[in-house]
């Protein structure tokens, strides 16, 4: 029964992740095609191992080649550079580009985005995208890639990692103290959930650390399993941990302690 429950929980979490994770690296939405460059580098195919570095200059120079493959005039209003990690948007920079592109026409735009505060937003590898928006505010084309932000530990992403680390460490130590004192809840599910919380925190810390040390970016297809695995393992550990002592166990412990004391006294 125990292992069926654990297996069911694991399969359920995997299905939730698989169905809920968005696709990464889409080159365009619809029939409008976008080819983008950031500071002279094409963003197509840029991942964790060759991320585009930003943050050492107060601006980012974008070169956008837009092809209108529709049968109607495309009226663009805005270009946006976004960076999202762990389901949270840490970077968002916009520029107004009021331009019309006729059906079948191709145009190239030169855009300069001010990113002076990017060092205070995040650090390390960030899954990012450049999107084009029309006059109705709808995104008509986008390209996904990876940025390497030359930020600091005092950035929002860095502070978030420190907070998660402190919370995870303190919760793990508290749970260990409860195990040693035999004060965990008597219900196994409650014990498992109590351990699953720092397990999830550990997974998030792994994601933040890998991004900060520029190993791998927290892509939507990467960070959920990195959080899922330690969460499930921690739940299993809590599920199998001993609960609170019962009255009978307390009496047995007292009797054994008295017996050891009497034996030691007689010798």
Structure summarized in a few sentences:
The chain is an alpha+beta fold. Helices cover 40% and strands 30% of the residues. It is elongated, with a radius of gyration of 27 Å.
Tell me what you see in this structure.
With 267 residues, the chain is α+β, with helices and mostly antiparallel strands. The protein has two domains: 2-19 and 155-244, no CATH class; 25-149, Immunoglobulin-like (Sandwich). It is 40% helix and 30% strand. A five-stranded mixed β-sheet has the order 3-9-8-5-6. Strands 2-1-4-7 form a four-stranded antiparallel β-sheet, with no helix packed on it. Helix 1 runs antiparallel to helix 4 (223-240) and helix 3 (188-212) packs antiparallel against helix 4. The longest helix is centred in the middle third of the chain and has 25 residues, at 156-180. The radius of gyration is 27 Å and the shape is elongated. The chain starts with a helix and ends with a helix.
The parts where pLDDT drops under 50 for at least 5 residues are 1-7, 9-29
CATH fold-level assignment of the largest domain: Immunoglobulin-like
Q: Sheet bearing the most strands, described?
A: 5 strands, mixed
Q: Which second-level CATH architecture of the largest domain applies?
A: Sandwich
Instruction: Supply the number of helical segments.
Output: 5
Arrangement of strands in the largest sheet: 3-9-8-5-6
Form type:
elongated
Q: Would you tell me the structural class of the helices and strands?
A: alpha+beta
Mean pLDDT across every amino acid position: 84
């Amino acid at each position: 029964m125990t292992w069926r429950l654990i297996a069911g929980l694991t399969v359920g979490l995997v299905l939730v992740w698989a169905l809920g994770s968005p696709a990464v690296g889409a080159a365009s939405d619809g029939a409008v095609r976008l080819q983008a460059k950031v500071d002279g580098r094409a963003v197509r195919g840029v991942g964790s191992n060759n991320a585009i570095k930003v943050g050492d200059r107060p601006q980012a120079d974008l070169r956008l080649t837009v092809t209108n493959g529709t049968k109607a005039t495309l009226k663009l209003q805005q270009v946006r550079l976004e960076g999202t990690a762990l389901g949270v948007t840490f970077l968002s920079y916009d520029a107004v580009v009021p331009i019309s592109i006729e059906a079948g026409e191709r145009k190239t735009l030169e855009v300069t985005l001010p990113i002076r505060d990017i060092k205070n937003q995040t650090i390390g590898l960030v899954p990012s995208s450049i999107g084009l928006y029309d006059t109705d505010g709808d995104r008509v084309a986008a390209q996904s890639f990876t940025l390497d932000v030359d930020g600091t530990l005092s950035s929002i992403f860095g502070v978030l990692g420190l907070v998660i680390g402190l919370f995870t460490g303190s919760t793990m130590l508290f749970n260990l103290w409860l195990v040693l004192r035999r004060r965990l809840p008597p219900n196994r599910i409650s014990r498992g959930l109590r351990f699953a919380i720092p397990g999830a925190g550990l997974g998030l810390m792994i994601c933040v650390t890998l991004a900060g040390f520029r190993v791998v970016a927290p892509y939507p297809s990467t960070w959920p399993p990195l959080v899922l695995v330690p969460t499930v393992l921690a739940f299993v550990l809590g599920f199998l941990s001993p609960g609170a002592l019962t009255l009978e166990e307390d009496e047995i412990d007292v009797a054994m302690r008295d017996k050891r004391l009497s034996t030691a006294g007689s010798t």
